[in-house]
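Table S2 (continued). Query chain:
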Amino acid sequence: MSENVKNTETQNTAPSKGKRVVKAIFNTIINILIVLVLVVSLLIAVMALTSKSSGISTIFGYTIQPIQSDSMKGGSPDGYKGGDFEKGDLMIAKSTNFDSSASYEKGDIVTFVSKDESGNKMLIVHRIVDVITNDAGTKLYQTQGDNRETSPVPDQTAKEYFLHPMNIGSVYYTANYEGKILKGWGNVLDFLQSQKGFFLVVLLPMIIFFMYALIRVVLSAAGYKKAKADEEKEEAVKKAVAAALAADDTAVQPKAVESEQTAAPSGMSAEELEQFRQFQEFQKMQKAQQQSEQTAVDTKPDTKTE
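Corresponding output:
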């Protein structure tokens, strides 16, 4: 009986450990995904809030902005450094906070907000190609894209096309600083900021995670009830075993023993009932062996010593 019990315990323990490992890995993955979704949600929310007034989002002193045209593709034909990026890339630049007292140089790459043909706001990334000083002594900056096919030479005499420092929202390249370009990630950010992308990547996973958490709570409650019921059954089995041992100590008649073996506590499963019967058989064999040994001692002839 003891070997059978050990084999049963081994078979039950191995799957339970495997299930616990798989469950732990699954829960870890779910928790990581939840954190990622929350981070993306927070990032999009911050960018949306900080870009409402100026059109350029700022996070911890830096701007994260998708490149929306190919005006800087190919690099500078004049030998300036720091360019060569295209539509769909993601630019990380240093925010200027539209500082009206800031000073820039020819060849710097800056960003500013303009309007397209439909009147919608559009973020422009261009290089400063000319610097002039107005009558008030303020420097004004004329910009142009490095890609001459999409960025024609500006009119050098049209002062209305020159930028005031307070119009420049961030700077990507200067003699002392160069930002970062993440190839292709601008398309990803544009998708996340769209209604469809926000729903698929943020809202839908959050709804799924909420439902998953709710199911886990329900399953935990059901598991607690089951564990409580199993504990009560185990207590009933222990009490039945204790009663069986007490009955064996009273040395009842075989008929009474047979009656005792057939009596099992109510509410036991088939497996628990089988274990209970095996235990009774073991007790019966042990008792028979003890009686046999006792009989052998009683019938052993006395030997006399002279």
